[in-house]
Design brief:
With about 450 residues, this protein is an alpha+beta fold. The chain is built from 13 helices and 21 strands. Bound molecules: flavin-adenine dinucleotide (FAD).
């Protein structure tokens, strides 16, 4: 990149401290957690931007995009860089647009809607919302670090999804304001169904600059760990709790042994050889819940109050994709898949997977409610990686037996399982980024407009 781009961007912002060119800093802000995947590691190691820019306002974003459009500079948006698929890794250099400093929570509207800038941390939104009687409907286990814009751009669901579905369900994202990559960048409001044009598009079709996020009334939560002799017993109980309207819950996560042996700080709550379940249950129901767990043959190995994100131990730190992280700490040959079992035949599907792959695939179940209200036995199985061929064999076999796989080992939107079959994200990209400068290379079905057309 020509050095005068940095000078020009300095002049646009009028603040050189927000135009970062130091190679180490630029390299660090060009990475995310793609290294979870041995396949992506090979593809993405060494990919870096030329400059990192940190806007503070929407007009600044417009000014930056106007300049990038005029000079054909690629732009990759970054929230906190906790994505797992290399979504925030720039493939073709250019600019990383780091939005972490646009972190204001502007308001909590009556009826429980948070209005935020994109860089607002989910943990801050949760903590502030609870002060006025609300909480997030769902959040990734990276809540403390992750930004709301990054969650909309690259995430899907997490803690809370067992009750409220994923981010794209139940009108949780009420509206999004997007800045377009055009000669004269516009700020466009997407409301209702139109939010799906931007959600989970990996920043390929515009910069989310403002978000209206629906919350849910806050609950006093408790945490509980229950061990079972067999994974089948743990699965039965966790499924029953997930499905039953009797229990007010935020998290239902079941682990096949030896996954819980990887959880260093809470290892004492994981009896040797047993399957373990982590729950977040309404505190008012805790005593009844423990007794139901014992009646089902479970051993309650831990229970305690949940006092917010600083609670220790914080069981959600071992769930969702944190589970994979603990496994990788124990042995870096571990990686993962993202699956959804068929609620009617999950046991048979698991039996067949076990028969074929044995300990190469360890079950880690996360229950979530889908948009139609069906409780899905979701899974981020921990996978022992040997070769890419073997990994693909696992993915193919899952699909052959009806297990849905959102492949986390590919680096383009269409491959990851959250791409909309009605192509609305692609259609929006054609409209908002006709030159194809936003996160180029990540939406494979997009073809840039011919220069002279
Ligand atoms: P980034 O990684 O910075 O960005 C994600 C994508 O969104 C990128 O493509 C980026 O270009 C784009 N983007 C960022 N900001 C904007 C914007 N303003 N406008 C448009 N596009 C934008 N994910 C889950 O869904 N659930 C989980 O439970 C979960 N658990 C995780 C656990 C671990 C240990 C790790 C490492 C990851 C986990 N993730 C999970 C993935 C990730 O943490 C979340 O998706 C998180 O919400 C991403 O936020 P971020 O701010 O880090 O986004």
């Amino acid at each position: 990149m020509q050095p005068d781009h940095a000078d020009a961007l300095n002049a646009i912002l009028g603040d050189s401290s927000r135009v970062l060119t130091q190679p180490q800093v630029v390299e660090q802000l060009s990475r995310d957690f793609y290294w979870y995947s041995p396949v992506l590691r090979k593809q993405l190691d060494g990919k870096v931007a030329d400059i990192v820019i940190q806007p503070l306002t929407t007009p600044e974003i417009q000014n930056i995009l106007r300049y990038c459009h005029a000079h054909d500079l690629p732009v990759t948006i970054r929230g906190a860089g906790t994505g797992n698929y290399g979504q925030a890794v720039p493939l073709r250099g250019g600019i990383v647009l780091d939005l972490a400093r646009m972190d204001q929570i502007e308001a909590f509207e009556p009826g429980g809607v948070a209005v935020c800038q994109p860089g607002a941390r989910l943990g801050a939104i949760e903590s502030e919302a609870r002060k006025c009687g609300w909480e997030l409907r769902c959040y990734p286990s990276t809540i403390v670090k992750a930004t709301v814009g990054g969650f909309l751009g690259g995430g899907s669901g997490g803690v809370g999804s067992v009750a409220h579905g994923n981010l794209r369900d139940y009108d949780t994202v009420r509206a999004i304001e997007v800045v377009t990559m055009e000669a004269e960048p516009r700020v466009v409001l997407h409301e209702g169904q139109a939010v799906h044009e931007i959600l989970h598009a990996w920043g390929t079709n515009g910069v989310i600059s403002r978000i209206w996020l629906a919350l849910t009334p806050a609950v006093e939560w408790a945490q509980c760990a229950v061990a079972f002799d067999t994974f089948a017993g743990a699965f039965d109980f966790s499924e029953r709790v997930a499905r039953s309207p009797q229990w007010i819950k935020r998290l239902v996560t079941a682990f096949e042994w030896p996954i819980s042996s990887f959880f260093g700080p809470v290892r004492q709550y994981a009896p040797d050889g047993k399957a373990l379940i982590f729950f977040m249950i309404a505190a008012a129901q805790l005593a009844a819940f423990e007794s139901a767990a014992r009646q089902a043959g479970g051993e309650v190995s831990y229970s305690g109050a949940y006092l917010g994100l600083r609670t220790r131990p914080l069981l959600s730190d071992y769930t969702w994709n944190h589970t994979t992280l603990w496994a990788m700490k124990a042995d870096d040959a571990y990686t993962y898949l993202q699956c959804a079992f068929d609620p009617a035949t999950a046991r048979e599907q698991m039996r067949r997977l076990k028969e074929r792959f044995g300990h190469e695939m360890l079950f880690h179940m996360e229950f979530w409610k889908n948009g139609e209200g069906v409780m899905i036995p979701g899974s981020l199985p921990v996978v022992y990686y040997t070769t890419e061929e073997r990994l693909n064999e696992m993915i193919d076999y899952c699909r052959e037996i009806g297990v849905f796989v959102a492949n986390p080992h590919v680096n383009y939107v269409e491959g990851g399982g959250r791409y909309r079959p009605d192509n609305v994200q692609l259609i929006a990209k054609r409209r908002y980024d006709p030159k194809g400068l936003m996160n180029p290379g990540k939406m494979l079905t997009f073809e840039p407009e011919a220069p002279n057309r």
